[in-house]
Fold this protein.
Amino acid sequence: MSTFSWIVRKDLAVFFSDKKGAAMVIVVPTVLGVLMGTIFDPGDGPSPLEVAVVDLDGGAAVGDLVKRLDAEASIEVVAMGEAEARAAVEAGDMGVALRFAPGCSEKLSPQAMFVSGDRTGLTLWVDPSRQTEADIVTGLLTKTMMESVFAKVGDPTAQRKMFDDLRAGLGNDAGSRPGLAKFLEDGAAFAEENDAAQKADPAAGGGMALSPPLTVKAEALVAAGPSAGFNSHAHTFAGMLMQFLLFSASSHAKGLFAERTSGTLDRLRMTRASPTQILLGSATALGLVSLLATAVVFGVGVLFFDVQFRSGLPAFAVVAVGQAALTGSFALLLAGLAHSEKQLDAVGTLAILTLCFVSGAWVPAFMLPGFLHTLAPLVPTRWLLDGMAGATWRGLGLGHALQTMGVLFAFSAAFAAIGIKRFRWS
Amino acid sequence: MAVEVQNLVVRYGDAVAVDGLNLSIPAGSSFGLLGPNGAGKSSTIRCIATVQVPSAGTIEVGGHNVATNPAAVRGLLGVVPQGLALYDGLTVAQNLRVFGGLQGLDGAALAGRVAWGLELSQLGGHATKRAGELSGGMKRRLNIACALLHDPKVLIFDEPTTGVDPQSRNHIFDTVRSLHREGRTVIYTTHYMEEVEALCDRVAIVDHGKVVASDTLAALLKRAAPTSFRLRPAVPTSAEEMRQRLDAAGFGGIGLEAEGQSLEAVFLELTGRALRDAS
């Protein structure tokens, strides 16, 4: 057996000599992955957003709008009094509340789209920590508002009223605006014709109806095919495992410091092992632990949570090897950058939490600020999680996995080089 | 020469730990390296052992330059460190296997040397016990065995009896003597003069990073005027009777102290010389 192999074997023996500690490295990310994956499992669809609605208007148009809003799958309307809704948002119990002031129903008319005038009356109360919910509600509210108004345009009675109101609004300006006056008069005649036509043949409808020019058809796209979908456990297992392996790397770096203090590191240097072999051997041992942990954690995922390797097992193995290299080299980096256990605790915790946060392990990556998206190519853990997703539920293929491994190897080489260069042997 | 150190300088920042030290250790000798704390002994040992790069100077071990051929030097050297450099989580046998394997031993040769190490350290019955569970004396013995697995020709013992019981200390002395009798060069660093007097035939005294004296033990002892003489009665007699005889002979001004009654001698007589934890 080579000297390098003895170093790896020694470190593995030391790691597994603490059986409970070794088990924790595997059990804890599995448990957390199961928990988080179950919590964030979209199941049959996302839970609807609760929106408080304060209807001080009481009119038919606002009632229709609120009914349409409640019919949206993403929204659940909760009727509340004004004080109650305000208090709920201030306390954080509700993210968004809609307040319809008296007179809103009259403003929800087709003719209001064409004339300038008072458009106030609708207030959106927002919990500032839940701006994303407010954006979703605003978008859906605008959509349902237009649908509600457009539906009225198709109603002959509403059409006639619209043109009558517009002509009445024109008033004394009719003389100075003959074109508009003629248009409105023709429109009123058009409305009369529609009314007569509907009365003659109710099945024919109002003759003119407005609707969005294009209907939206949502289609989930996954490279693995139409039957594939997002598997929350695949995501959380990858994220939790990555995080715990990084913490294991910090612990491993601490082990190197302990060897330095105890003198075993000097003893190793008095053998045939070179300093580089000692450090790389140690990192390799940790990498092998990483592979074992990955196999067990994802084994649980495959057996019990329908995690699938949609790019094939070789692709997943390739990404796992990249993760192993990153884990081992990260230990060397920390051991090289920190010169004491206290420094290691601080530097390690900062580095790990930052890497986990910006990679999207805790918060979905799309929710992160724009500048972090720009920095993403510089974050190895982002590549790792993307690689894991590509190997599992996204099914992006072996090519994507190899690219991920290549990038992770590049980061690992840099981490190891820095760590070995800066490591203090005494 | 087994070890030749010339103009060795070791600096730690602005502090000079070894300041132009010269040392010649003959092959086959039992060489004591004495000096107070901070004298530069450990730094010198670390440089000889190839784990520290000197700031200046040259070191040769068995004719091999430490700087240019460290691998050959490591093959010749067996260093018993001052600290207990063992893996507490591994068993006695695992520790021996790891350090033997790292010295290039393999297969049957490794198994044989591990068995030899267990015999030397008298830990055969504790082979499957974790090193962390051993007593201090047992750990010291294992510490020694781990350094000798590759049959080195030059042995360095860096304060090997720190914190051990008298039985273990005696066992270590016996081990050192035995290894020396096999023709190996032994370098022994310690604070304890009596250890050097018991084990070494040549001594260097180090202070402030320099060798202040280096000679045979006998020659060094002659440098100091004797402060006492040993009287050996032909017939065993009591201290009281000896005092009376001296007074009668006109030597009333001489102080008399009885020998052979050290506390260690009483302890070993009462508790025995055998290792309590030997297997």
Observations:
- The first helix of chain A runs from residue 3 to 17.
- The longest strand of chain A covers residues 49-55.
